[in-house]
Design goal:
This protein has 410 residues and is an alpha/beta fold. 37% of the residues lie in helices and 19% in strands. The protein has a 7-stranded mixed β-sheet with strand order 10-11-12-9-8-13-14, with helices on both faces. A 6-stranded parallel β-sheet has the order 1-5-4-3-6-7, sandwiched between helices. A two-stranded antiparallel ribbon has the order 2-17.
């Protein structure tokens, strides 16, 4: 399944072998067997193990995990795919496209996935290993019903596929979502959109200060994976850090936390490319322009910039190592600082049930996820409050006949 540049005239032949009519059952056994083999191969591959996001994907695809996931759906025998689903992956997040593909597969569909425009080495590894497994005799039906494509930004070929598809999944910014919403589609086409979101982290200062150094280093590793691994471009990457506790504990926690994170950046030889470094300055300039005044900026290192602003302008972009810091004495009142686009709250040293009680039902935001630091990028079928597997599968309504001896009343 090589990536097909469908805008090129010579690429049209792929449609001759693609199975547009392929429909499978919900969690079809051959699909689960394929994903189990894919998982095992990824986990054995030394190069693949170097990428935390690819390893997370491999663990998700294990048969045991898929079996547990299937148990959530008591109506699984009544479900099957809609047909062919077009997936539009975000351009700047690796491996997201693979999760979207797998959700389509598990729901029982054929899948056409537009790949990210930006190159990522873990994506290349995934495609190479996916091709190898799909080429095995037992899995050739998987190969004929799933294809990865690459297109120009406003591709007429992609638009044509969307108009013919049975389903559409779009991961992207608000402008991308609006563009695909406006396209003509089949009357029964099901649509799932994931527009711009923002996320935050919540840390109890006293709990952090009490950690031994090795545990602080581990938390820095986890926070790096939530943020710098994708340059904070993921909707679930925190751009605000809430510090809870007394002023002296917070000050001590900040110094230790950002120092440990800077050491993690050095250990991984993190380097921001020149274009992203310019964008980092432009993001900061846009905030100052919106506020109409300078911001309170504390550079913790050349790559870590901290802003003390409350609240941030609604559409502020904080990427490439920029974090707004907000200090609160306790969880009480955090609801007032969450943004309307708030998606994920990562936490450390906090009772997640207490955090849920503070944010559940809030009118100014729409928090969808509360997960430990280090789990921000863990995609699952319940995303942005939507059950993707349920949406991407059609359910046959099955009504049992009355039991013998029972009669209706009039």
């Amino acid at each position: 399944m090589p990536i097909i540049p469908i805008d090129e005239p010579a690429a049209g032949a792929w449609r001759d072998t693609f199975d547009f009519s392929s429909r499978r059952g919900f969690f079809d056994e051959s699909t689960v067997a394929f994903l189990q083999e894919l998982s095992l191969t990824l986990l054995k591959d030394a190069a693949a193990r170097q990428y935390p996001d690819l390893a997370t994907f491999a663990y998700f695809c294990r048969r045991a995990n898929l079996h547990t996931l299937a148990q959530r759906y008591g109506d699984a025998p009544q479900r099957s795919g809609w047909g062919t689903v077009v997936h539009v992956a975000p351009s700047n997040i690796p491996i997201n496209f693979a999760f979207s593909l797998v959700f389509g597969l598990l729901a029982g569909n054929s899948n056409i996935v537009r790949m990210p425009s930006r190159p990522f080495p873990q994506n290349d590894l995934f495609v190479e290993i996916f091709d190898r497994i799909a080429g095995l005799p037992d899995f050739r039906a998987i190969a004929s019903g799933n294809v990865l494509v690459r297109t120009e930004r406003d591709s007429a070929r992609l638009t044509e596929l969307v108009t013919q598809a049975d389903g559409l999944v779009v991961w992207g910014g608000d402008a991308t979502v609006a563009a695909f919403r406006s396209l003509p589609k089949r009357p029964r086409c099901i649509e799932v959109y994931f527009p711009d979101r923002r996320s935050s982290a919540v840390i109890d200062a006293a709990a952090y200060v009490a950690l031994p150094q090795d545990a602080q280093r581990r938390l820095a590793y986890d926070f790096f994976n939530d943020t710098f691994l994708v340059d904070q471009n993921a909707c679930s990457s925190p751009s605000i850090v809430f510090w809870l506790g007394a002023a002296d504990a917070v000050a001590s926690a900040k110094d230790s936390f950002w120092t440990a994170l800077d050491e993690e950046l050095k250990r991984r030889d993190y380097r921001l490319d020149p274009t992203a470094r310019i964008d980092k300055h432009l993001d900061l300039m846009a905030i100052t322009q919106t506020l109409g005044r300078p911001v309170h900026l504390t550079p913790r290192s050349p790559d870590i910039w901290c802003l003390e602003e409350r609240p941030l302008p609604r559409d502020s972009d904080l990427r490439f190592g920029q974090f707004a810091e907000i200090t609160l004495p306790s969880l009480d009142g955090i609801d007032a600082y969450l943004r309307s686009q708030e998606q994920t709250l990562t936490f450390f040293g906090i009772d997640p049930d207490a955090l849920l009680r503070c944010v559940n039902g809030g009118t100014g935001h729409s928090v969808d996820r509360i997960v430990p630091i280090g789990r921000a990028l863990d995609i699952n079928p319940l995303w942005d409050g939507k059950d993707i597997l349920a949406i991407l599968s059609r359910r046959i309504d099955l009504v049992e006949p009355p039991r013998a001896g029972r009669t209706g009343s009039v």
